[in-house]
Amino acid sequence: MNGEGITDVSGFPETPFEFDDGEGRAIEVREYDGEREALLSMYEEFDPGDRAQGIPPVRGDALERWLDGILEGVNTVAWDGNDAVGHATLVGDEGMDAHELAIFVAQSHQHAGVGSRLIRGVLSLAYDRGVRDVWLSVERWNRAAVRLYNGVGFEKTRREGFEIEMGTRLTV
Q1: Which segment of the chain is annotated as a signal peptide (predicted)?
Q2: Is there a contact between 15 and 29 (Cβ–Cβ < 8 Å)?
Q3: pTM of structure
Q4: What is the pLDDT of residues 117-145, one digit of tens each?
């Protein structure tokens, strides 16, 4: 990737870790460990208006197949008690060294710092697993997401149509 940012993960928390979000809720971020039903529940409750680029799929077999695919990567989940309230995944691209980042936060927990902590957790875990190059695609009008990604070191690498591609190289 040319023009990608640099993300120093040495100051990022190692999973598992806890924090109080902006609403004062105790949130735990930990590596995915088979809690599939809790993730399915979170994704089934996603507001269709908050779905970007067709993901997550709405329900049923499409959601199950999509979840099967992303759970093969590096995954962290944010928990509010027994409820999954956020999920970050890094999935390897076939034939490429780079991994694609996707992050999802339940509507009830958006704008409270869950997303930024979730990203830091998954990037730290990914670095420990040997991942160095990460990219993502975001809708260009999603300024909050672009700010979030910039805040952890991502830079724009390409802009086409409705999407911006961003990338970063993980270092310590």
Answers
A1: none
A2: yes
A3: 0.92
A4: 999 999 999 999 999 999 999 988 889 89
